[in-house]
Records
---
Amino acid sequence: MSPSPRNRVRAFSRTMQVLLAAGLAAALATSLSACSSFNRATESMADALTLYKPEVVQGNFVSKEQVNALQPGMTRLQVRDILGTPLLASVFHDDRWDYVFSMRRQGVEPQNFRLTLFFAGDTLSRFEGDDMPSETEFVERLSRKRDIKVPTLEATEAQLERFPASSASPVSAGAEASANAVPSGNYPPLEAPR
């Protein structure tokens, strides 16, 4: 006896469900193995390829020289002239200004600096904070190591002796030459005729 058409459809449907489940299982196994091999490949390339991370300086840079210029008794305006506008000036703490800045560079731990100033009315009473870098130290921290040879800009006596001194000064000789110069060529007028 041959199976009925209804039974054949059910058998085909079950076969398709089994094949679909097997296909999904194979696809899942393949995708998981691809992820693990991708991770292994990227881990080995991590030393060769590094992402670019920009150098970031955030906040108000305050140098050691600026901190040394502060004196108790200065007015808020004098302090602002030296340090600039504070990063934090709270309405609720009118007697306190905070100057904060941070430097983030690739391959270097982030560096955070803080300076807090306390006022009594309009005059500076005290200040406290981290040991600030000098302006030179700040620039050195930002700049990359480069071998730059800066030429000397002063001539020695021996170098100056190689050039004889002229009797006429260069300014008067240049003025004489420009007064005697005759323009060569025909130039159009600068303004249109009226």
---
Amino acid sequence: MNDLRSFIPPYILHRIVAHGSERQRHSAMSTLAHVRTLRHPPGPPERPAAAAILPPSGKAGQAQRSVHDAQGKMLLPGMPVRLEGQAASGDPAVDEAYDALGASYDFFWKVLGRDSIDNKGFALVGSVHYGQDYENAFWNGAQMVFGDGDGEIFERFTRSLDVVAHELTHGVVESEAGLVYADQSGALNESLSDVFGVLTKQYLLEQTADQADWLIGADLLTPRIKGIGLRSMAHPGTAYDDPLLGKDPQPDHMRKFVITQEDNGGVHINSGIPNRAFYLAAKTLGGFAWEKAGLIWYDALCDKRLDRETSFSAFAKLTLEHAWRRFTAKEARAVQQGWSEVGVDAMQEEP
């Protein structure tokens, strides 16, 4: 069985348990305990029962969303609050989730030509107000779920478009490649979710690679926390340095690769390495990152030769091959250089 794909790494929750106030510790412990109980089988996602609320649109390019209120409980999906095409509810979390799911769908459809998570119009189901002070967001194999945070460390998780898009992308990765959520393949799973999460944000904001902040979860930390986000794709290891949360542990090069039994072999930690490789390639190419680097990474993700337990190097070689296939030597050089700068060998014979 695979671990649920959650946004907040367990090492952050452990830090809060060790150093937080009584309330903060309680919230972190309950979140951590709950995440451990949630498992789902590997393989393509199944349509959630909640999707039956909405009839199939039958029209590619049309999102099919339903947002539910868990009402502080841990029962899914909760009460339906806003269905596709309905007006804003007035609940910020509901409306943020609805808008972010739509923006994520639009990115995958308009940029990548993908019709939802499974490329077959999969209904996008989101639940908000999950649990009490729940400090996480996750994809459970059928839908996306968002906690409200504790208001002291984390804001509500629907505030960050890239967080919503990150969780949706976990579904895409699961449906397309089924990358095992452990070690290097698991770190790639996390990295790909960061890549398309941040590209969704850049696409909506019409930001070039130079204009973007390349942060994941920039809207998530409260002003009390010394940090600019949960992860920095441009400079892994620099997103936060806080007495409560500790210092961002992400490495930016293979020589700093973290070997650990925690976090499924460091999936949230070592994802900093492929994250920076993507950032470097996108920055070198310039312009809108989704137009070249994003297409190359998506082509590699959809390559049927992609092994479920792939290494960084094997994935890097696929990106280099697809850079040649889709573009020219210029793009291939940028991809090769990006991987090389983080210590990953992407070299292969030119076609």
---
Amino acid sequence: MRDASARSRTGLNANAGQSPEPADTRVRVSLQHLRSLEGRARKLTLLPRQPVSSVLNGRHASRLRGRGLNFEELRGYLPGDDPRTIDWKVTARTGEPHVRVYSEERDRPALLVVDQRMSMFFGTRLNMKSVTAAEAAALVSFRILDQGDRVGAVIFGDGYVSEFRPKRGRTAVNRFLTALERANRMLHAEAPRVDQPLFLNQPLTSVARIARRDHLVIVISDFDGLDARTGKLIGSIARHNDVILCPVTDPISEDVPKNMKLVVSDGELQVELDTGTTETLQRLSDFATGRIAEILRWQQTYGTPVLPLSAGSDTVDQLRRLMGLGATTRAQTNE
């Protein structure tokens, strides 16, 4: 392809922004690291039937609708059949109880929306937020693969959106992970400043175009740059699809340290923030809590489950806890 924008949409800029790979995968992921996560969360599931304590369980405010149902046949009632499947019109007409038999659709395409903007290249305790997002996306892609569903993705940075239509099989997952590693490599302290950073609305517009209905859409982002249109896009997508929101935060946003001077930079300009002043501390706290509050409002309004992830904790253990499972054991970690 000669068209540069087309290459960005498909993630084909293989040499863009690459830098020597650091040994520490808490800063930048490698393809080998992403692939190594496959065995660590085998019990995770994104199917409708969830553990009791899972945030995706039906007893919570929101849940996964899951695959649709295909009508198979109408037959006579047999002992043990669910009474809720009885077709009362046919039963009344024939004088004998009849049930409608359905089978679950075997395929539900999934679309992973992964944020790799410079706002994600930040971490104070364990991982960069960009690493936590990449790890979570890799884990989910492996689970979708094991469920026999198609895997697609929308990966976006400050100046590009890469789209991958849902496809079935390990080749599709490997293609996604390769593009994800490439996007993560583009994040570094010397990255050129983008005049107009990409907000979440553009990748969500891509999602709305690809996932017309009956998709599983998982958005993994710090949700930087929300506006009124963002909520409308989320609501529109959730109307015909299952949508899971995974806000990625850093521990410092949950507990802004007092009496510290923080230097914040966009790559060219920088400003010093003094958290010793009550006004500055309050504004920083309000900024962090306000973003999460908006995401939780979407949960109540549109029924979108929220799986909050912290860059300060192990990604696998967080997902397992959110889905009602225990932390991984040493044996599971070494599988």
---
Amino acid sequence: MKELLARAPHPHRFIGHPPQGATDLASLLRGHPLRQAAKSLVIRVALPGKKRQYVLAVVRGDHRVDLGAVAAVMGGVRAGFADRATAERLTGCVSGSIIPFSFHPDLHVVVDPGLLEQDEIYFNAARLDQSVALSAHAYRALAEPRVAPIADRAGSTERCAPPVARAA
């Protein structure tokens, strides 16, 4: 991912912080509203004919993934969370630090449009102690995700992070 960001013409910044994989706590450490966090989860979708497909579902940090919506978007009959070993194998990231990009041909990225409404998004940088801040527009251009409503907005858990002093 660092190579992708280094080659891209889009501004971004890396943010160091104590190790944290929980979206809400990482957002507090980074100092931004939870709605700006890109929460990335690997979902296993059961397709007709006993086939399966894996999806990297990316939603706002204050929403939950709607598994039924993910299954429907992918033409599946049901969906569930992938086991930890599979998620880590497909993403190359330890659980809690999964980036909202896929570099594996068997992992398809689907992002909820609510995340793309944010000016800037934040996510762990495939490490628990470092994050990335990037414009949502740049993320969409770099990741080239499928965009579909896959968030359960009823499960919203928005909490505001306290402001963080930033160097001028």
